[in-house]
Specification:
The chain crosses the membrane at residues 16-38. This protein is an all-alpha fold. The radius of gyration is 20 Å and the shape is elongated. The protein is built from eight helices and no strands. The N and C termini lie far apart (60 Å).
Length: 172
C-alpha cells in the first residue's frame, strides 16, 4: 500500500518528479551559494563572524526569500495536484481535462518563480522547457524563458563580480 503523503497522479509520472527535483535543487543550490559567497571578516576568518557583517545580512535575506518562494511554489503545486484530481477516475475525460488545467496553473506558478528569483532559476526553467518529457503545458509556458527573459545590464553584472571577487576583472 502506497503512502498518502505527497502522492502524485499516475500520469504525472517522471515529468512531475523532474520538475520537483529541479526546483528543490535550485533551492538547495541557492542556499549553498549564499553561504559560500558571504564575504569573510578580515579580522577573524571564522564563518560565524562573517554572518554578522553588513554584506552578509542582505545576502542571507535574499537567499531566504528566494528559498521561501521556491518552497511555497512546490507546496502549492503539490497541493494543487493532490486536491484538484482527488476522487476523479484516472481514465475519465474529466480527469484528463483537470490534469491539463493543473499542469497549466503549475507551469504559470513555476514561471512566476523563475522570473522572480532570476539567475539559476531562469536557467532551470529553460532546461525544463527544453525537455521532451514534461507536459506540453509546462514546455509552452516556460518556453518564454528561452527568449523573453528579462535582460540584465552589464553594469549590474560587473557590480556583482566586483563584490564577489573583490576586484574588477580588468585588474586580475
Amino acid at each position: 500500500m502506497r503512502s498518502k503523503i505527497l502522492k502524485f497522479p499516475a500520469t504525472l509520472g517522471k515529468s512531475g518528479v523532474y520538475l520537483l527535483i529541479t526546483t528543490a535543487t535550485a533551492t538547495a543550490t541557492g542556499l549553498g551559494l549564499a553561504f559560500q559567497f558571504i564575504p569573510k571578516n578580515d579580522n577573524n576568518n571564522s564563518r560565524h563572524s562573517s554572518l554578522t557583517s553588513s554584506h552578509s545580512i542582505p545576502a542571507l535575506f535574499h537567499a531566504f526569500l528566494r528559498s521561501s518562494r521556491a518552497i511555497s511554489t512546490i507546496a502549492c503545486t503539490v497541493v494543487d495536484y493532490k486536491y484538484s484530481l482527488h476522487g476523479l477516475p484516472e481514465d475519465s475525460d474529466d480527469y484528463l481535462r483537470k490534469l491539463s488545467e493543473v499542469h497549466l496553473r503549475s507551469a504559470k506558478r513555476i514561471l512566476k518563480l523563475c522570473e522572480a528569483n532570476k539567475g539559476f532559476y531562469v536557467k532551470a526553467g529553460q532546461f525544463v522547457a527544453a525537455m521532451r518529457q514534461v507536459p506540453k503545458e509546462y514546455s509552452s509556458t516556460l518556453s518564454s524563458l528561452q527568449d523573453q527573459a528579462v535582460p540584465c545590464h552589464f553594469k549590474a553584472i560587473k557590480k556583482v563580480l566586483i563584490s564577489n571577487l573583490g576586484q574588477d576583472l580588468s585588474e586580475m
